[in-house]
Write a structure and sequence with these properties.
Elements: H1 5-14, E1 16-19, H2 25-39, E2 46-48, E3 55-59, H3 61-64, H4 66-71, H5 75-84, E4 90-100, E5 108-111, H6 113-120, E6 128-134, E7 145-147, H7 162-171, H8 174-178, H9 186-196, E8 208-211, E9 217-219, E10 229-238
Antiparallel strand pairs: 1-8, 2-3, 3-4, 4-10, 5-9, 6-8, 6-10, 7-9
Bound molecules: 2-oxoglutaric acid.
Keywords: Dioxygenase, Oxidoreductase
InterPro entries: Phytyl_CoA_dOase-like
Organism: Crinalium epipsammum PCC 9333
């Protein structure tokens, strides 16, 4: 699958591109079954919510599971990603499964992934790309990823300061538990939304959302709907943008140090026996 020049232009302008129905229902079913099986296993990349039971994320699904190992090498993802990164060879920086079960308050604050990639993982530039694969239908009710179109042009934005954070937390205790390292402050979010607005790309299970790691995004809680929302989030990086060594590297299952370029597998790879 190749992106058209129109699609490449849209991605460049908006910092994201939605590809509806990329994967067939049979392929989605295979991935969903493997995601459920992974939730029952124990390994370091499995992150639970504060209740100690509900799975929030599985880091490194592609290192633990054959189907996700194949998904990250699927030509429907790798070929468009290579185009977005200037026809460069790419490697897998990270892959996670993000779970938002029905009637749960799991959320992600506003942030840029490039802050993590550049500041924590040592990427020289933000020239990486992310593919989100919808394992469930994503609709207006179950907490779609929210994106500020065009915000990738800002480059790295300063996250919330300690002072802003302590004020916000005094005001709303719940923020303390929702804090992520590079969360943006409310004044910053307000200014950015005035400039860029917010979109919530939605689509059937099997759709793919491509986005630029500097595109500001976040994700509200799925507290009201009876619909689960599981997505696979895969970050690819160009072999021209290999990270420099950092002092306290994040674990391999969060930020890979295997920079070998990947070869796309065959189109039907998700349906082959494991
Ligand atoms: O799950 C989502 O909708 C957003 C996740 C996210 O922000 C991330 O993985 O960086």
């Amino acid at each position: 699958m190749q992106l058209t020049s129109e699609e490449l232009k849209t991605y460049d302008l908006q910092g994201y591109l939605l590809l509806p129905n990329c994967f067939a229902p049979g392929e989605v079913e295979v991935m969903r079954a493997e995601a459920s099986a992974l939730c029952l296993q124990d390994f370091a990349g499995k992150i639970l919510k504060r209740d100690g039971k509900t799975v929030r994320m599985i880091h490194g699904a592609h290192l633990e599971n054959k189907v996700f190992h194949r998904l990250v090498r699927h030509p429907k993802l790798v070929k468009p990603i290579m185009q977005l990164l200037g026809d460069s060879a790419v490697y897998i920086h990270r892959c996670s499964l993000n779970f938002k079960p029905a009637f749960e308050d799991t959320m992600w604050s506003w942030h840029q992934d490039s802050s993590y990639f550049c500041k924590n993982d040592g990427m020289p530039t933000d020239q990486a790309a992310i593919a989100i694969v919808f394992l469930d239908e994503v609709n207006e009710f179950n907490g779609p990823t929210l994106v500020m179109p065009g915000s990738h042009k800002e480059g790295l934005i300063n996250p919330i300061t300690e002072e802003e954070e302590s004020l916000a937390i005094e005001e709303k205790q719940y923020l303390k538990s929702r804090r992520t390292q590079y969360m943006l402050s409310r004044p910053t979010v307000t200014k950015l939304v005035e400039k860029y607005g917010i979109v919530a790309p939605k689509g059937p299970a099997g759709s793919v959302l491509l986005f630029h790691p500097s595109c500001v995004h976040g994700s509200a809680a799925n507290i009201m709907s009876p619909f689960n929302r599981t997505i696979a989030v895969i970050a690819y990086n160009s072999v021209e943008n290999i990270p420099v060594a950092v002092e306290n590297p994040r674990p391999e299952y969060v930020a890979s140090r295997d920079y070998r370029p990947i070869e796309p597998l065959s189109e039907d790879v998700l349906l082959q026996a494991v």
